[in-house]
C-alpha cells in the first residue's frame, strides 16, 4: 500500500511538473487543476493581501507552489492551517515558524474546486494571453511629448523662414540685375537700413525711451522679488510626484501631512510612513525601483528577504524645504486648517497636479493681509452667540472677516 | 568711415538684444531667490526639521522618550506581537471610557476614516478603495462578518496601532482617542455591510 501511495504521489508530481512546463509553452485549460480565471479573482480577493506570485510578501511567493507541495496538503493548509499544524504536520509547523509565526487565517468558505482554481492561477500566472483574460495592466511608457514637440515645431518654423528669406533675397537680386544694378547681400541691406535709422533722431529718442522703460521695469520687479520665493522648485532627493499620489491616486493630503491639522507645523512624513504603502507597492510607473529603493535605504528594508534589517542605522531623507516664511513672522497650520477650515490648495495651489512641487503663493505680508481682509469667519457656533452679536453690532454687518476679529494686529504674527 | 558706423549700429543692436535676453532669463527656480538682510529672516536657533549637529544622529526632530504618555491619553498596553493580536481578538468590549460616543465624535471618526483608511478599505469598508480599484493594492479584506468573522473593537484598535500583514502602523496619524472613534465607525460600516448581505 505504501509503495502504491508513493507511486501515486510521484506520478502526481510528474503530472504537476508537466503541467507547469506545458503551461509555459501553451496553456490549455485541460492540463490545469481548475479554472485560472476564477482563481485569479479569488486570489486577488482572498490571498493577495499577504501573497504575491513572483515574490515573498507577508507569506511566501505562490508561483510554482504546486511543485513544492502536494495538492491535498495545500487544500488542507488553505482550508484551515491551524488544524493542520495541530495535527502535527511537520511541513506546516516549519512554514509557520519560518514566517515569524504570523498565522494565516482559515478559509472554511472556499470549496475544493475554489482552491484548485486558485492553484491553477498560481501555475498560469498573469499571462496576457491566458484564459484569465485580463492580464497585468501594461504600464505605459511615460510620454512627455509637449516639450519635445514644441522644439521641433520651432526648429521647422525657423528653417522655413530661413528658406523663405533666401528665396526673397534671390528674387530681389534677380530684379536688381534686370534693372541693371549691382546685387547686394542681406548684411549690406541690413546695415544700410540701420544707418538710415541711426541718422533719424526721433527714432533714436523713441528707442531710448522704450529701452529705459523696459530696463526700469525689470529693475523694479527685480527689487520687488527680493525675499519672495514664489515659483521656487528645488530638486528633491527622491523624485516624489504629488501628481501621482495626491492626484491620480486620490490620497488625502492629510494622510501624509497629518500634522497640518494638529500643530503649528505641517509635518514632512517620515520614510516609515512611506512604507505603509511601499512595503507592498515596490515599483513605480516612471522610475521603476530606483526611487522606491531610496525609501528602503532610509528605513533599512531588504528587497531580497522582504523584511526590515535588524539593527539598521536609519538614514533620514534630506528633503529640501520649499515653503519658508521668514522667522520674524509666526504661522500656525492648525489654526488655518483646523479652526478656519481652509483647504490646503488655498495657499499651496494645485499640488495634486504638480509633478515637482513648487511654491504657488507669494507668501508675502501683503498676501496674508489681503486674505485676512477678505475671508469671512464662521460665526455659526452658538456658544459664542453673544460675542458674535456684539461684533455684528460694532461693524454693522452680518459678515465678520478675519480682520474684524483682530487678524491684522501686528502682534498676532510678529512678536 | 562708413564701415565704422556700420559696426557701431550693429553693436548697439547686439547690446539691446543681449540685455533683453539677459533680463528675461535671470530667475533660476531651483534656487530660492535673493534675500535682503538674511539675518533678519533666519534666526540662529535650529528649526524643526533641520539637522542638528549636537545630536549623534543629527536629527533635529527628536523622538519622544520611549514610554512617554501625554496627559489624558489612553494607554494601550499590548505590544506588537502575534500573541497580543490573538489576545485582542478575545476582548469584545470597548474600554469603558470609549463605549458610548457622541454624534460629533462619530462624525470625527468618519472623517478620519475617510482620510486615513478609505484609500484602501473603501468608503463603505468593502475593501474596494481607490488604490484597490487602480490595482495598486490587492486583497484588502471587507469588514463584513462573512469575510472577517472575528473582529472585535480591541482587535481593530490593535491593527490601527501596529498594522497587520501588509498594512502598516497608523499610530502616528490617528491619535489614541481618535482611534477609538475610527473603531466605532469601522464597526458601523461592518453593520451596514452585514445588513446589505
Automatic annotation (TrEMBL), chain A:
<dbReference type="GO" id="GO:0020037">
    <property type="term" value="F:heme binding"/>
</dbReference>
<dbReference type="GO" id="GO:0009055">
    <property type="term" value="F:electron transfer activity"/>
</dbReference>
<keyword id="KW-1133">Transmembrane helix</keyword>
<feature type="signal peptide">
    <location>
        <begin position="1"/>
        <end position="29"/>
    </location>
</feature>
<keyword id="KW-0812">Transmembrane</keyword>
<keyword id="KW-0349">Heme</keyword>
<dbReference type="Pfam" id="PF00034">
    <property type="entry name" value="Cytochrom_C"/>
</dbReference>
<feature type="transmembrane region" description="Helical">
    <location>
        <begin position="149"/>
        <end position="169"/>
    </location>
</feature>
<feature type="domain" description="Cytochrome c">
    <location>
        <begin position="34"/>
        <end position="126"/>
    </location>
</feature>
<keyword id="KW-0472">Membrane</keyword>
<dbReference type="GO" id="GO:0046872">
    <property type="term" value="F:metal ion binding"/>
</dbReference>
<dbReference type="InterPro" id="IPR036909">
    <property type="entry name" value="Cyt_c-like_dom_sf"/>
</dbReference>
<protein>
    <submittedName>
        <fullName>Quinol:cytochrome c oxidoreductase pentaheme cytochrome subunit</fullName>
    </submittedName>
</protein>
<feature type="transmembrane region" description="Helical">
    <location>
        <begin position="203"/>
        <end position="223"/>
    </location>
</feature>
<keyword id="KW-0479">Metal-binding</keyword>
<keyword id="KW-0732">Signal</keyword>
<keyword id="KW-0408">Iron</keyword>
<dbReference type="InterPro" id="IPR009056">
    <property type="entry name" value="Cyt_c-like_dom"/>
</dbReference>
<dbReference type="InterPro" id="IPR036280">
    <property type="entry name" value="Multihaem_cyt_sf"/>
</dbReference>
From TrEMBL, chain B:
<dbReference type="InterPro" id="IPR009056">
    <property type="entry name" value="Cyt_c-like_dom"/>
</dbReference>
<dbReference type="GO" id="GO:0046872">
    <property type="term" value="F:metal ion binding"/>
</dbReference>
<keyword id="KW-0479">Metal-binding</keyword>
<dbReference type="GO" id="GO:0020037">
    <property type="term" value="F:heme binding"/>
</dbReference>
<dbReference type="GO" id="GO:0009055">
    <property type="term" value="F:electron transfer activity"/>
</dbReference>
<protein>
    <submittedName>
        <fullName>Quinol:cytochrome c oxidoreductase monoheme cytochrome subunit</fullName>
    </submittedName>
</protein>
<dbReference type="Pfam" id="PF13442">
    <property type="entry name" value="Cytochrome_CBB3"/>
</dbReference>
<keyword id="KW-0349">Heme</keyword>
<dbReference type="InterPro" id="IPR036909">
    <property type="entry name" value="Cyt_c-like_dom_sf"/>
</dbReference>
<keyword id="KW-0408">Iron</keyword>
<feature type="domain" description="Cytochrome c">
    <location>
        <begin position="104"/>
        <end position="190"/>
    </location>
</feature>
Amino acid at each position: 500500500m505504501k509503495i502504491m501511495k508513493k507511486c501515486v504521489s510521484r506520478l502526481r508530481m510528474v503530472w504537476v511538473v508537466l503541467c507547469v512546463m506545458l503551461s509555459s509553452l501553451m496553456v490549455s485549460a485541460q492540463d490545469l487543476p481548475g479554472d485560472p480565471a476564477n482563481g485569479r479573482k479569488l486570489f486577488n480577493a482572498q490571498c493577495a493581501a499577504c501573497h504575491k506570485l513572483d515574490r515573498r510578501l507577508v507569506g511566501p511567493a505562490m508561483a510554482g507552489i504546486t511543485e513544492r507541495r502536494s495538492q491535498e496538503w495545500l487544500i488542507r493548509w488553505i482550508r484551515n492551517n491551524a488544524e493542520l499544524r495541530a495535527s502535527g504536520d511537520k511541513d506546516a509547523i516549519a512554514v509557520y515558524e519560518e514566517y515569524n509565526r504570523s498565522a494565516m487565517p482559515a478559509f472554511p468558505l472556499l470549496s475544493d474546486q475554489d482552491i484548485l482554481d486558485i492553484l491553477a492561477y498560481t501555475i498560469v500566472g498573469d499571462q496576457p494571453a491566458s484564459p484569465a483574460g485580463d492580464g497585468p495592466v501594461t504600464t505605459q511608457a511615460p510620454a512627455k511629448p509637449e516639450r519635445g514637440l514644441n522644439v521641433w515645431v520651432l526648429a521647422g518654423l525657423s528653417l522655413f523662414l530661413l528658406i523663405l528669406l533666401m528665396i526673397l533675397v534671390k528674387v530681389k537680386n534677380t530684379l536688381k540685375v534686370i534693372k541693371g544694378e549691382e546685387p547686394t547681400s542681406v548684411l549690406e541691406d541690413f546695415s544700410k537700413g540701420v544707418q538710415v535709422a541711426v541718422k533719424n533722431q526721433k527714432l533714436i529718442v523713441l528707442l531710448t525711451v522704450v529701452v529705459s522703460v523696459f530696463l526700469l521695469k525689470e529693475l523694479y520687479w527685480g527689487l520687488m522679488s527680493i525675499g519672495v520665493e514664489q515659483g521656487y522648485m528645488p530638486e528633491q532627493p527622491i523624485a516624489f510626484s504629488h501628481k501621482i499620489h495626491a492626484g491620480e491616486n486620490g490620497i488625502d493630503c492629510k494622510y501624509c501631512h497629518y500634522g497640518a491639522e494638529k500643530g503649528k507645523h505641517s509635518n514632512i512624513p517620515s520614510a516609515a510612513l512611506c512604507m505603509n504603502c511601499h512595503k507592498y507597492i515596490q515599483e513605480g510607473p516612471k522610475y521603476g525601483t530606483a526611487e522606491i529603493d531610496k525609501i528602503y535605504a532610509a528605513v533599512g528594508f531588504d528587497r531580497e528577504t522582504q523584511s526590515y534589517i535588524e539593527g539598521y542605522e536609519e538614514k533620514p531623507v534630506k528633503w529640501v524645504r520649499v515653503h519658508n516664511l521668514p522667522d520674524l513672522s509666526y504661522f500656525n497650520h492648525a489654526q488655518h486648517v483646523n479652526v478656519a477650515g481652509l483647504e490646503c490648495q488655498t495657499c499651496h495651489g494645485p499640488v495634486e497636479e504638480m509633478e515637482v512641487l513648487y511654491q504657488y503663493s507669494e507668501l508675502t505680508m501683503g498676501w496674508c493681509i489681503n486674505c485676512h481682509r477678505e475671508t469671512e469667519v464662521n460665526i455659526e457656533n452658538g456658544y459664542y452667540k453673544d460675542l458674535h452679536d456684539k461684533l455684528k453690532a460694532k461693524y454693522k454687518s452680518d459678515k465678520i472677516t478675519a480682520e474684524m476679529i483682530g487678524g491684522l494686529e501686528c502682534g498676532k504674527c510678529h512678536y | 568711415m562708413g564701415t565704422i558706423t556700420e559696426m557701431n549700429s550693429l553693436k548697439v543692436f547686439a547690446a539691446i538684444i543681449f540685455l533683453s535676453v539677459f533680463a528675461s532669463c535671470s530667475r533660476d527656480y531651483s534656487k530660492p531667490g535673493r534675500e535682503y538682510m538674511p539675518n533678519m529672516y533666519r534666526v540662529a536657533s535650529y528649526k524643526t526639521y533641520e539637522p542638528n549637529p549636537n545630536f549623534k544622529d543629527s536629527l533635529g526632530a527628536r523622538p519622544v522618550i520611549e514610554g512617554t504618555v501625554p496627559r489624558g491619553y489612553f494607554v494601550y498596553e499590548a505590544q506588537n506581537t502575534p500573541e497580543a493580536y490573538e489576545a485582542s481578538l478575545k476582548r469584545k468590549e470597548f474600554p469603558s471610557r470609549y463605549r458610548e460616543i457622541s454624534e460629533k465624535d462619530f462624525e470625527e471618526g468618519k472623517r478620519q476614516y475617510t482620510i486615513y483608511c478609505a484609500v484602501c478599505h473603501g468608503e463603505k469598508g468593502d475593501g474596494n478603495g481607490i488604490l484597490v480599484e487602480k490595482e495598486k493594492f490587492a486583497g484588502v479584506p471587507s469588514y463584513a462578518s462573512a469575510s472577517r468573522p472575528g473582529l472585535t473593537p480591541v482587535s481593530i484598535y490593535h491593527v490601527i496601532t501596529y498594522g497587520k500583514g501588509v498594512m502598516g502602523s497608523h499610530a502616528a496619524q490617528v491619535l489614541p482617542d481618535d482611534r477609538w472613534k475610527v473603531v466605532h465607525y469601522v464597526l458601523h460600516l461592518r453593520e451596514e455591510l452585514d445588513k446589505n448581505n
